[in-house]
C-alpha cells in the first residue's frame, strides 16, 4: 500500500502537514518596548501589511449560561464555608437542567450552611426569576448530596488539620499553567479580554435596564488579527465580533443588532481596532428566546478556557470553581499566573508561560517550567531561577501568601467573566510581585 493510501480514507482526503509559519519570528518587524507598543498602532498596522498576520479567536459566556450558573453556585457554597470556617475543605459540584439544580460533592467544615438558600439566592441574583427566562429561583427543585472529605485524602493532605502550612500537601496530582502577555494593560490576551468584557457588558445593560429585552443567557466571541513580533503577540485589528444573546419575545432582530452595536460593542471595543472590514454576527441564529437551564444542561467546570486565557497559553485540565485552596487545580493556577504576570510586568519578557506540577500529599512541586516564547531579555533558565527564588509553590504557603482562606463573596466573583486580568483587590494573584534578582545581569 502506498504511503498516502489508507484502506478507509480516500487519498484526496489526506492532506499534507500544516506549516504554522506564522508562529515563527518575522525578521522584518523590529522589537518594541514591553510597555508602550499600543501607542503606535498605525505603525503596527503598516508592519502587519508587510508581515504574515494570523487570526486567533476567544469566546466567553454570560453569568446566565447554564455552566456558569453552576460555577457560581459552587463558588457561593465555597464562600459560605470559608466565611465561617477558613479551614473548610470543599469540593462542591453543581448541575442543572429544567426546573432543577443539584449540589453534590465532599465538604468538611464547621460552618452551618443552608445549601438550598445559597442555590436560590445565586439563581435569583443572576436573573433567573421565572420559567420564561430559563429558571425560577423560588420554585425550582433543589437537590443536595454532600458528604465529608475522604479520610484517606485528609490524612495525606493536611493530616486531619495537624500539619503546619509549609507541610500541607497538594490535594491531588496535576499540572497547572499561568500566562501573561504585554498586548493589553491587564497583561492578558486581547481576544480573551474583549470577549469577556462584551459578556460582562451584556449583563450590565440587562440589569440596569438599558436593554430591557435581554435575558440572562448569552455568549460572545472575538476574532483578532495578530502579528508575531519576535514571539510577542501584537494585535492589529478586530476581524470578527460574534454575540448570541437570549432575548424576550417582543424585540426584533434589527433592534437587537442596533442595541448590541450601540450599547455593548461600542463601549467595549476600542475604535482603533475596528474598521470597515470588521465582521459582525449578532444573534446569527435569528432567535434565542429559550435559554438558561431550560435550553441546555449545565455543570461546574465546563468553561475552563473561558475562565483562564481564551485558548492562549496552556491549560492542565483542572477546573477552579467549588474548590478550596488545598486543591492545586485552583491555587496552583493562581500562583502560576502571578509568577507569569510579574515576569512580564518587570520587563524580563514580553510573554511568559509558567507550568507547575504536583503529587497528592506532597508539599513541594514536582516541577516548575518557564517559556518566554523567545521574548525574554535573559535566557529562560535564568527566568526560571528568578521564579523559583521569588515564589513559594507549596500549597499551604500559596494559601497564606494569596490569602485564599477568605470567603464572603470573594470566589463567586471569579466564577463569571474570568479569574485573571481583573481589577479587584480580592484577586490577590493579580498583584504584581516586585522581583528580587540581579538586575545588572538582566
TrEMBL record:
Residues 290-430 form the S-adenosylmethionine synthetase C-terminal domain. One of its GO terms (biological process) is S-adenosylmethionine biosynthetic process. Its EC number is 2.5.1.6. It comes from the Eukaryota. CDD domains: S-AdoMet_synt. It is found in: Cytoplasm. Pfam families: S-AdoMet_synt_C, S-AdoMet_synt_M, S-AdoMet_synt_N. Residues 167-288 form the S-adenosylmethionine synthetase central domain. Its main location: cytoplasm. Pathway: Amino-acid biosynthesis; S-adenosyl-L-methionine biosynthesis; S-adenosyl-L-methionine from L-methionine: step 1/1. Residues 54-151 form the S-adenosylmethionine synthetase N-terminal domain. GO terms for molecular function: ATP binding; metal ion binding; methionine adenosyltransferase activity. Keywords: ATP-binding, Cobalt, Cytoplasm, Magnesium, Metal-binding, Nucleotide-binding, One-carbon metabolism, Potassium, Transferase. Binds 1 potassium ion per subunit. The potassium ion interacts primarily with the substrate. GO terms for cellular component: cytoplasm. Homotetramer. NCBIfam families: metK (TIGR01034). Catalyzes the formation of S-adenosylmethionine from methionine and ATP. The reaction comprises two steps that are both catalyzed by the same enzyme: formation of S-adenosylmethionine (AdoMet) and triphosphate, and subsequent hydrolysis of the triphosphate. Belongs to the AdoMet synthase family. This is S-adenosylmethionine synthase.
